Amino acid sequence: MNTFGREFRITTFGESHGRAIGVVIDGLPAGLPISPEDVKRELERRMFCHIPALNPRCEPEEFEILSGVKDGYTQGTPLAIVIWNKRVISSYYDELWLKPRPGHADLAYYIKYGVHYDHRGGGRASGRTTAAIVAAGAVAKKLLAHFGIEVAGHITELGGVEIGSEYTFEEVKKCWEKPLPVVDDVAMEKMLEKIREAVVAGDSLGGGVEIHAVGVPPGLGEPHFGKIKAELAAAALSIPSAVAFDWGWGRSLAKMRGSEANDAIVLREGRLALETNKIGGSLGGITLGEPLYFRVWFKPTPSVRKPQRTVDLGNMKPTVLEFRGRYDVSTVPKALVALEAMTAVVLADHLARAGLVRRDKPLS
Ligand SMILES: Cc1cc2nc3c(=O)[nH]c(=O)nc-3n(C[C@H](O)[C@H](O)[C@H](O)COP(=O)(O)O)c2cc1C
């Protein structure tokens, strides 16, 4: 499946070394202001070219909004965005044909698609495809902004270094002004050091991120299948290299007793609220009007300079692979931007499913 969502739906296409990648967004109302600048801003947040180890390809994002927008406003018709692939060096991948990279999707794609898949740059499984997700997220974020909803994330762990400090939503948004979006300066410096060490070692790093969504109205999500946390987990684990998901306090809650874990129900400014919101803003899969938050972890980038054992599928003999191409020393920073985008897509879909986004009249 390359389509995600029910009422607000995105369909992505493209491979890493093909001509282009892109997205078609269906289910948008008419009358939402969208400019190329909105898309450009989000694509640039994903680049991290100021730390070359995080994006050696450093693709200048040349894109076009092909349809769905007239005079700066959505028409209510499918909005298509194409992003051209420019800085492609496919020759690195010649010697990798039929030698699946351990940890990458090559082996799985060979099993499923035989010799028909494009292995260059990871093809359809490449992290490059998250640029299309980020473009969709730029549009979804604009829709959320109309309803006063904001989504922002930050890095909580990289290369085994974890943040230590408490933080607010404003601090999460502000930490994007730093070289890495980390609220804790000491932890950020240690993470940057880990990145430098991994480059020298020819290795890669995993880590974790946290997403916050504020201003989310109560009543989004469906009672059994279609729970808000289940759909956000599906969206998160669709991002390449994602390996784990914690809702609210997640595994820390699982270690507590019920009396500690439960959030007291209180009245705040005349409305029903949770005193502590350890549960991440939903109960029974339905939002409560509290902020949503969750954490996602990403494994270390599969491609590394260190020799890796694999099997040559041409002659079915063991072989050792030495990867000479470019690779992101950690997928975490770019994956974080993709995760913000997918969060926005899920929330936009649930706004539409709850009847708050209507397609039978322009947005008012
Ligand atoms: C933003 C982003 C960038 C990535 N960059 C690379 C990379 O440079 N080299 C690599 O081997 N894998 C990279 N990956 C990871 C692979 O795409 C991923 O591990 C692979 O598709 C297998 O999927 P899985 O790890 O979810 O099973 C990246 C992933 C993301 C999200």
Number of helices: 9
> What separation lies between the terminal Cα atoms?
33 Å
Mean pLDDT: 95
CATH superfamily annotation: Chorismate synthase AroC
Shape: globular
CATH class: Alpha Beta
Distinct ligands: flavin mononucleotide
CATH topology: Chorismate synthase, AroC fold
SSE topology string:
EEEEHEEEEHHEEHHEHEHHEEEEEEEH
Topology (SSEs and partners):
Layout: E1 3-4, E2 9-14, E3 20-26, E4 30-33, H1 36-45, E5 62-67, E6 69-70, E7 73-75, E8 79-84, H2 106-113, H3 130-146, E9 150-158, E10 161-162, H4 169-174, H5 185-201, E11 207-214, H6 228-237, E12 242-247, H7 251-254, H8 258-261, E13 265-268, E14 271-274, E15 282-283, E16 286-287, E17 292-298, E18 308-312, E19 317-321, H9 332-353
Antiparallel strand pairs: 1-2, 2-3, 3-8, 4-7, 5-8, 6-7, 9-10, 9-11, 11-17, 12-17, 13-14, 15-16, 18-19
Helix pairs in contact: 1-3, 3-9, 6-9
